[in-house]
Amino acid sequence: MRHVTFVDNNDVTLLESGTAYFPALIAALDAAEHDVLFETYIFAEDPTGETVRDALVRAAQRGVKVRVLVDWIGTEHGPSQRLGAIFAEGGVHYRVFNPWCKRGIARSHRKIAVIDREVAFVGGINVNDDWLCDHAEHQRLAAPRWDFTVRVAGPLVDHIHDEAQGQWLRAGRLKLRQRIELFKEMRKEPRQTCEFPARAAFVVRDNLRNRSTIQRAYLQALGRAKHSVLLATPYFAPGRKFRKALAHAARRGVQVTLLIGVGEFQIQDAVAHSFYPKLLAEGINVVEYRKTQLHAKVAVVDDDWATVGSSNCDGLSLFLNQEANVVVLDERFAATMRAHIERGIADGVPVRAEEFAHIGWLRRASYGAAYMLYKLVMRIFAIGYA
């Protein structure tokens, strides 16, 4: 398992939801001159998807080498085929990750864009409309989906580029000469210089060299926490190590607050609810976000550690899927991220311990059954979940 490697002198900008992300992405794509690597889990057939798709095609038609990788489950078979036909006509190189689950059930849940090795975007935002539910077709949300991406410039972009290049290579069937050429591209020296204060790391989860890297980054931060932990996640079902780290931090007097999305999947809510009594007993604050679909996977620890990415705090993200996060060590960035999470907490509903004291035995049993089923599935498909 790889250690988390931080590099200095990065400019990391937080972008909230698609209203901030997509204009920045389109501007970067329209300015691209050499190379674009683009990965997403969902590439929707909606106006947002069409806008991003057209920008990628425009870049390819200018002579930019554009490579797009989507997930077969996330984008779905029909849309991914139709997207491929449009990209083929427009000169975009296109691949689908793990079609028909031929390589097992792992998904590429990453959301990454790298343009000319100069700027990168990493986060949780899929290519879809903020106002439309991403698991129920044409269902409009009560408010725009809440999510984040970071725009990165500086030395960290090279790390992101090399990983995206490697993922592209692994997703295809290339001849030896093509693999050598891609490897040479990965080893090119960076062309840009950048003098900004943020120290940052790019952390990924895969089933080879980085099986526990994202969880390791979280555990290290939780283990060093001194006064506060704020964590927002759509789905909460981590393994025992992660839950223990949260509890140990709370016992040391650290104020731990979890902002958890609810209302998407009933069984997922039941699994999260099964943890509430123990979390509350440990002094951990639990807040449910019900304003709209919470899709953000972000956290802030103390005053200088923050992360933004695609990894949920559940078994699928921490032990099975391909994921990508950026970890930032910078007080200014952490303060910005903290302010956003605190606003989310203000929009949420605190969970009280006394509420669970009056829950009927049948509902308690359903929560426990949901957790046992989830745990069984994770142990079958995801090595390391407990």
- Uncertain spans: none
Number of helices: 13
Report the helical percentage.
Answer: 40-55%
Return Rg in Å: 20 Å
Distance between the termini: 18 Å
At the third CATH level, what is the topology name of the largest domain? Endonuclease, Chain A
Q: From the coordinates shown, what is the CATH architecture of the largest domain?
A: 2-Layer Sandwich
Number of domains: 2
CATH class of the largest domain: Alpha Beta
Q: What is the CATH superfamily label of the largest domain?
A: Endonuclease Chain A
Estimated share of beta-strand residues: 15-25%
The count of DSSP E runs of length 2 or more, i.e. the number of strands, is 17
Gross morphology: globular
The helix/strand class is alpha/beta
Pfam families: PLDc_2
Main location: membrane
Protein name: Cardiolipin synthase B
EC number: 2.7.8.-
Question: What's the gist of this structure?
Answer:
The chain is of the alpha/beta class. It has helices at residues 17-31, 47-61, 72-75, 77-90, 156-171, 176-186, 213-224, 240-251, 266-281, 315-319, 331-346, 353-357, 361-381; strands at 7-16, 35-40, 65-71, 93-97, 112-115, 119-123, 148-153, 198-205, 228-233, 236-237, 255-261, 285-289, 298-301, 305-309, 313-314, 323-329, 349-350. It is globular.
